[in-house]
Inverse folding.
């Protein structure tokens, strides 16, 4: 089978391909703002995600942990870390969650890091381009939640 | 109050600061591999995460959704998306999870994108540098799970 | 406002009402088996769930914790406990999960207890009859997953 | 191997055993309230949980689903259902979560039922007595959160 994204096996660093499929956005629109930020380097690998992927590969290899890192297990571990993140907020009011003390924020940042690390690891195992998938998902969400219908409403798209 | 990481307000793009606190790694070690990948651009913003942050800001602003995006709510939403990701794997064997059909993988990639988008949004709201937090967490995990003690074992660090 | 289930405010102990709405099942069928077990006491309160509800009420009242126990917060806490339960299994093979050592099983039982306690507490706050809701859901699932279509398959009902 | 709780294989219906280990509570205390509710039937099986267990057994057997119901998979499925429950609350204020419209409450009750059903199924597979585990956990929590230290505070026991 021809590889997905032939010529772009970097998994977390190739946003250019997906960009080709999207018609040029109106200036000032959401997609326009986004592309303005992406354009300078849309064809370059994303250094942070790429570095994390390599670091996680090395980390697992050194410990012989690939045997545990099936996508199923990684998805479970990611979900567990997301809940550990949520645990910090479960009894807080929304206002209190907007004003975390420095120490709490540091621990929250650690849980967020854990989520990102498992996400990068899962993307590596499934050969998913995370950044490209996120860009495509924002475009998808923009269609699911048209501005005029969803403004100021938290309803699910199925109920708009 | 003096901003955290003065001079580095990019929130998702400043890995340089945290790097200063870590002693130089041995060449060939995990941290060495990681830094080799980071070094070229450790002081530059990460284009993909930065673009996603801006896109999410625009997306929420257009829909007047900032009112819903308290850190508490975003943490809950992230956790829900992580579970939707897990749902795809819950009845699969580990082997089946390693060999997803193309269609299933595409849907899994969408759920992964949702997790990343909420993570980026939460990082923005809390002014957390995601990439730097992840780099710091890998270093922290390397200390919690020394190679010689954790090789081939899935035990938690508290039980090594 | 007239209470839901007038005459049945026990919240976790009134299965009789929902039973009236369900046509009598064929003997030997799933619903038949279920009703055979329920029939002796379908009109009586369920002592265990009732006792847990009362214990949780007392526990929260003594600590002035009602202020934290909004349904939103309880749903988050329940989700966090469910993830703590999952954490015990995340790196195990399915076979290993079927053969937990006694100590691991004891810790798993504690996490299961936490899930049940928050579930009972949430049911109390929302005035939901847990046992009746579960009976109704099994009947609903039996219609969503007809035996002949779902035998030996883990596919979601939307894909049968 | 001698069965755990010899003479009490009902898995979800034997609260008597654990009760023997707990010293008699002061009248009017939490444990006193709890035992007053339990005492009439602490030695009898809990009809609702027992009926649900039997119904789930039949449901799975008819569909040949035991092959999918490893404890690992059931823990994942339970966690996914808990997140679906949380999804209903993620964008609501706490006050709104206390005043759900009837339709929303009905859907919430369905998700709660799903959580309970997987919990009962997992308890069956692991031979855990859910009601007894919950009673023991409340007693444990009462020790972890002494009234005088935890009154009006949502802090974790590790920070009291």
């Amino acid at each position: 089978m021809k590889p997905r994204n032939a010529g772009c096996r970097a998994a977390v660093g190739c946003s250019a391909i997906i960009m080709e499929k999207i018609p040029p956005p109106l200036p000032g629109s959401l997609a326009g703002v986004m592309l303005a930020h992406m354009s300078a380097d849309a064809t370059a690998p994303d250094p942070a995600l790429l570095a994390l992927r390599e670091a996680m590969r090395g980390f697992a290899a050194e410990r012989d942990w690939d045997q545990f890192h099936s996508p199923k297990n990684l998805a479970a571990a990611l979900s567990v870390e997301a809940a550990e993140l949520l645990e910090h907020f479960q009894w807080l009011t929304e206002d209190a969650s907007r004003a975390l003390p420095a120490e709490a924020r540091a621990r929250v940042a650690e849980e967020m890091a854990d989520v990102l690390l498992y996400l990068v690891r899962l993307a590596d195992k499934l050969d998913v381009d995370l950044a490209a998938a996120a860009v495509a998902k924002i475009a998808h969400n923009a269609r699911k939640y048209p501005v005029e219908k969803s403004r100021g409403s938290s309803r699910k798209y199925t109920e708009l």
